[in-house]
């Protein structure tokens, strides 16, 4: 390869990296923009907690149903059209979620939002795996770090606009304009191809793919527990004022974002296997600290350790998914992400059930053993 060809390849890969970072940022913004709308939906429709829970279940159903098709479509048409179309679909649905009161229409909008998010999530991860492979460098943690940054930015921007009295629809339209501008910037560097086209549309995870999906399930289950139960634990078990109990998840999320933004250098230095092994131990230790020491300060420290420990496990698992040869990537990636989503959807409910039968401390304590299993299973990875 002559110097001009090498320079062109380096320039092309740089553009692909930048575009991949932008679409991860976009995905985080879109996902978090929905969170401030949920209480407004509840108030607008008059749903009780049970009814709202059923409505929100539509998001998970839509996501999991759509994910396998994302693998097929990226293989057939490339990552670029799938990412662009799913992002535009999300930008079309978000305004509906901000003002619809007709319950059947709102249900369809939530299903559409979940399906579009599932498609986008799969497509950007397929893009990230290909870009990382082509570069020969460790990039996954940085990509996922931008998702976390987008989550903070999207939730912060929506909360700020709503707190200033801006109409929900107008707030969403402002955010949609930013998302579409970012998508326009990212489009040239999105891949016009995807993974190999062979293999069935749907496949049962097996071998290393099943292990990777199971580990994703545990890490996402932990994240779901932090999101839904950390504030409850701080308020009920550590006597923290309910108005401040959200600091639990904030500690977790901030630590996870920091861990991911510095994660590429850490993974390059230690290797993926060690990062998963040490991350599982760190997260388990953090959960143990939050449960054993009887102060909210210790709990916040523990949640930060959980965030640091979990931060780079999923990026390493996706790198391993790109290297495995047991299943085609077009079926392996959706399968792994679907198992992760199942952890977020089922985990908090499972913890609630165990807490009802015993105590919340016992229920959250189960995560310690699951995270230690993640650490043990690291030895079977090739990352």
Describe this structure in words.
With 383 residues, this protein is mainly α. The chain folds into two domains: 6-189, Growth Hormone, Chain: A (Up-down Bundle); 207-380, MFS general substrate transporter like domains (Growth Hormone, Chain: A), CATH 1.20.1250.20. It is 82% helix and 0% strand. It is built from 15 helices and no strands. The chain has helices at 3-34, 38-45, 49-77, 79-99, 103-135, 140-163, 168-186, 207-237, 247-261, 263-270, 272-292, 296-311, 313-323, 329-357, 360-377. Helix 11 packs antiparallel against helix 15. It starts with a helix and ends in a 6-residue tail after the last helix. The mean pLDDT is 87. InterPro entries: MFS, MFS_trans_sf, MFS_Transporter. It is a multi-pass membrane protein. It is found in: Membrane.
Provide a count of the helices: 15
> CATH H level of the largest domain: which superfamily?
MFS general substrate transporter like domains
- The CATH topology of the largest domain turns out to be Growth Hormone, Chain: A
User: Helix- and strand-based class?
Assistant: mainly alpha
Please count the beta strands (DSSP E, at least 2 residues each).
0
């Amino acid at each position: 390869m002559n110097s001009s060809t090498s320079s062109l390849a380096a320039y092309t890969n740089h553009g692909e990296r930048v575009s991949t970072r932008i679409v991860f940022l976009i995905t985080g913004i879109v996902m978090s923009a929905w969170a401030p709308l949920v209480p407004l939906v509840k108030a607008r429709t008059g749903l009780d907690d049970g009814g709202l829970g059923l409505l929100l279940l539509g998001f998970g159903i839509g996501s999991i149903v759509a994910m396998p098709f994302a693998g097929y479509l990226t293989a057939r048409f490339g990552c670029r059209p799938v990412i662009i179309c799913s992002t535009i679909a999300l930008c079309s649905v978000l305004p509906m979620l901000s003002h619809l009161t007709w319950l059947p229409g709102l249900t369809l909008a939530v299903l559409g939002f979940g399906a579009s998010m599932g498609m986008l999530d799969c497509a950007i991860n397929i893009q990230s795996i290909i870009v990382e492979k082509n570069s020969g460098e460790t990039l996954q943690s940085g990509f996922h770090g931008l998702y976390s940054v987008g989550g903070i930015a999207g939730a912060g921007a929506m909360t700020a606009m709503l707190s200033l009295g801006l109409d929900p629809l107008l707030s969403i339209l402002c955010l949609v304009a930013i998302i579409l501008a970012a998508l326009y910037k990212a489009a040239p560097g999105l891949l016009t191809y995807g993974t190999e086209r062979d293999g069935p549309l749907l496949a049962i995870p097996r071998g290393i793919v099943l292990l990777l999906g199971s580990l994703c399930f545990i890490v996402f289950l932990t994240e779901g527990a932090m999101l839904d139960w950390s504030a409850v634990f701080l308020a009920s078990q550590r006597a923290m004022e309910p108005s401040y109990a959200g600091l639990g998840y904030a500690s977790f999320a901030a630590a996870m974002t920091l861990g991911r933004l510095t994660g590429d250098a850490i993974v390059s230095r230690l290797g993926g296997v060690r990062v998963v092994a040490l991350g599982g131990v760190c997260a388990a230790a953090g959960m143990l600290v939050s449960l054993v020491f009887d102060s909210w300060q210790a709990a916040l420290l523990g949640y930060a350790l959980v965030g640091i420990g979990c931060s780079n496990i999923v990026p390493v698992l996706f790198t391993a998914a790109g290297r495995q040869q047991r299943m085609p990537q077009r079926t392996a990636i959706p399968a792994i992400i679907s198992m992760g989503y199942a952890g977020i959807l089922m985990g908090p409910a499972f913890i609630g059930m165990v807490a009802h039968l015993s105590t919340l401390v016992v229920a959250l304590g189960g995560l310690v053993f699951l995270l230690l299993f993640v650490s043990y299973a690291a030895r079977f990875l090739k990352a």
